[in-house]
Amino acid sequence: MKPPGVYAEQTDLFDLIDRHVQIEKAVSDCGSANGPVFSRIGYLLFSDAPRGQILQWRPGGAVAEFGGTAAAVFSDDSGGATGLTFDHQGRLLVCESGRRRVTRREKDGSQTVLADQCQGLAFTAPHDVVYSIDGSVYFSDGLLPGGRASGEAAAEEQTGPAAVYRIVRSQIPGKPAVDCVSTECIRPAGLALSPKQDLLYVSDAERRNIRVHAIADDGSLATGRVFAEIPSDGPGAAGGLKTDEAGNVYLAGPGGVRVFNTSGEYLGIVILPEEPTNCCWGAGFSGLYITAGTSVYHIGTKKPGTRTF
């Protein structure tokens, strides 16, 4: 196994990440870190599903005993949270995989359930979520904790298909409508919008690839295509995704953070000390925070990330 560092397949990678980039451990001693999102007011949130927590970390905290810095508990009743993001008002959106729903944390601390079923069928375990500029919320469902697919759920559970779903923005009071917008992935995992928010990228943990869909004016998804295959025979699944303002795609997946250009060509990988699960842009949508195993890491980048909230 190669040591942590940057490994290029094409030298274009060095236009995005310095070949000698410092891999910094920001947070340590987590159960299983996932779903990072960086607030516009200067702090990182990420989930720790085994401990049922959402944790908060601010740059410049005290260094913990075994490296990294200490994270505070933001919520100790997360509902088995995995994916997190914010909306344009700064409210936290949470994939509560344990409670099989997507919720929103209001400014007063209360919770609003945005989605807990589609066409009368419950979800399996909402996994990742992204907020669109038109107010739509896209989330993936069908990847159970431990990597089991939705079809392996208990027979008595009436769950919907493994799919990408859309919560429709509405000005009408009450729970918004939820549409199933794609069932093309066997186990949809990570989601990311393109810089112009006219494309949605979806990683498939089963097929170990990334699909891309054009987004119609009404928020529905066109039939997708394979954007990129993961060039790895090693263990691990395709995880969280992000794009930068130039349209390059970053995948937290087998072996490290893999980078693809706008055509889906593989540029190279940043290998971390632990297997990554997800990633997010940092302060000012610059630099990547990466959840990996029991830690959160940070690397600098040369391109700013796509703004989604």
Could you give the topology of this structure?
Layout: E1 5-8, E2 24-27, E3 33-38, E4 44-48, E5 53-57, E6 72-75, E7 81-86, E8 92-96, E9 101-105, E10 111-115, E11 117-118, E12 121-122, E13 129-131, E14 137-141, E15 163-167, E16 178-182, E17 188-193, E18 199-204, E19 209-214, E20 225-229, E21 241-243, E22 249-253, E23 256-260, E24 266-271, E25 276-281, E26 288-292, E27 295-299
Antiparallel strand pairs: 1-24, 2-27, 3-4, 4-5, 5-6, 7-8, 8-9, 9-10, 11-12, 13-14, 14-15, 15-16, 17-18, 18-19, 19-20, 21-22, 22-23, 23-24, 25-26, 26-27
Structural features, described:
The strands form seven sheets. The chain has a five-stranded antiparallel sheet with strand order 1-24-23-22-21, with no helix packed on it. The chain has a four-stranded antiparallel sheet with strand order 2-27-26-25, with no helix packed on it. The protein has one domain: Neuraminidase, CATH 2.120.10. It is built from no helices and 27 strands. It is 0% helix and 42% strand. Strand 7 (81-86) and strand 8 (92-96) form a beta hairpin. Mean pLDDT is 91; it is low at 62-66 and 146-156. The protein is an all-beta fold and 309 residues long.
